[in-house]
């Protein structure tokens, strides 16, 4: 299942469109208003999406992100560096004796090194995958007439049927 959000095209940049969409449900109950990249919970999300169907400024559109893209991206941003840090600590601990340092010191240095290496790999993966369509949201439909009223602007749904054009 792909994640679909409804929003309004605010501007065009070549074959890309800047779409504004209402914040998701999790933002509504958040007490940390304003801490997310300087935007409050009343500030709409801005999504830079591919525009293969030629939506124009002011169109109400469906923006789709491929299945599994968020999970894969979250792994490289959050979990991979943590795993690198843990692996670095475990791998460096046996080197304490030959290096002439205490085990805790070696583990700490290994954790820092493992974290740094994992972050470097994550950044390289980001650069390689940046232009790939898997991680790029795409406008899949323009909503018109009564279809616009079916979902409030910015709402999210999960859909299994193919995109409407």
Largest sheet: 6 strands, antiparallel
Number of strands: 6
Structure annotation, total helices: 5
Overall structural class, as computed from helix and strand content, comes to alpha+beta
Percent helix: 25-40%
SSE topology sketch:
Elements (H helix, E strand, L loop, with lengths): L1 E12 L2 E6 L3 H4 L16 E6 L9 E6 L3 H24 L3 H4 L3 H27 L8 E6 L2 H4 L6 E4 L6
Antiparallel strand pairs: 1-2, 1-4, 1-6, 2-3, 4-5
Helix pairs in contact: 2-4
Short account of what is shown:
With 165 residues, the protein is α+β, with helices and mostly antiparallel strands.
Keywords summarizing the entry:
165 residues, alpha+beta, 6-stranded antiparallel beta sheet, 5 helices, rod-shaped
Task: Describe this protein's structure.
- The protein is α+β, with helices and mostly antiparallel strands and 165 residues long.
- It is built from five helices and six strands.
- The chain has helices at residues 25-28, 69-92, 96-99, 103-129, 146-149, and strands at 2-13, 16-21, 45-50, 60-65, 138-143, 156-159.
- Strands 1, 2, 3, 4, 5 and 6 form a six-stranded antiparallel sheet that branches.
- Helix 2 (69-92) packs antiparallel against helix 4 (103-129).
- It starts with a strand and ends in a 6-residue tail after the last strand.
């Amino acid at each position: 299942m792909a994640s679909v959000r409804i929003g309004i095209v605010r501007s065009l940049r070549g074959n890309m469109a800047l779409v504004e969409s209402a914040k998701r449900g999790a933002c509504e109950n958040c007490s940390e208003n304003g801490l997310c990249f300087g935007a409050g919970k009343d500030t709409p999300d801005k999504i830079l999406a591919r525009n293969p169907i030629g939506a124009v400024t002011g169109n109400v559109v469906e923006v789709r992100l491929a299945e599994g893209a968020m999970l894969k991206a979250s792994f490289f941003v959050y979990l991979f560096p943590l795993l690198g840090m843990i692996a670095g600590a475990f791998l460096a601990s046996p080197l304490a004796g030959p290096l002439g340092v205490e085990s805790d010191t070696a583990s700490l240095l290994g954790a820092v090194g493992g974290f740094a290496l994992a972050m470097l790999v994550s950044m390289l993966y980001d650069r390689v995958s940046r232009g790939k369509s898997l991680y790029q949201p795409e406008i899949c439909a323009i909503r018109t007439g009564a279809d616009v009223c079916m979902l409030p602007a910015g709402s999210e749904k999960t859909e299994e049927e193919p995109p409407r054009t």
